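Give me structure tokens for this 210-residue protein.
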Amino acid sequence: MHQKVNEARGVEPSGLRELKKQRRRERIVAAATDLVRERGIDEVTVTDIAEVAQVGRATFFRHFDSKESAVVIGFYENRLAALLAALAEQPEDIDPRRAMAEAIRTQIRGFQQSPDLREFDLLQGRMVAASPSLRSRGLEFQETYTTALAQLLAPRFGPLAPTDLRPRYLAAHALAVLRIAVEQWVAEGGTGDLPAMVESGLEWLEGGRS
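Here you go.
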């Protein structure tokens, strides 16, 4: 009833407004990512991003406080979605630790196959390392990752008591493997073997090494 009244008055339903808001945000992230990959962060302005995303500067700043945050936060959001999708695709009958490790390996294979992606990962890693505020936002996303992954992992453990934290432990440990490996890789200037760094951590996670 309220929706029909709103439509009659020319007011968008709240669900449609939120969908449009999310799509604008996605356009901003896509524009920021593409421009930074093409030109480098120093040669891209907020105005450039807004123009490509077809939004005003005011709209940009309603979503992000800087061009750097648009790149880094967008990176984290996209990676979370991809990691959740990879985990959901793992067979239901395999051990939760293996399922989590295989989901991460799926992401790393994409990294190996794309030089552009490696360069972009290095760029965003350097931006995070150089900015306390972005590093703080990254840690906030780690908590988001942990919660979302734990929820997806929980059914793989069978019936769980409310106090059983194993899904969160596993999610947090897996993300620590990724974070520590990436931080080391960035510190080495992107010259190290990131897939090998991640793999050593995954082997430990799966119980292959003590």
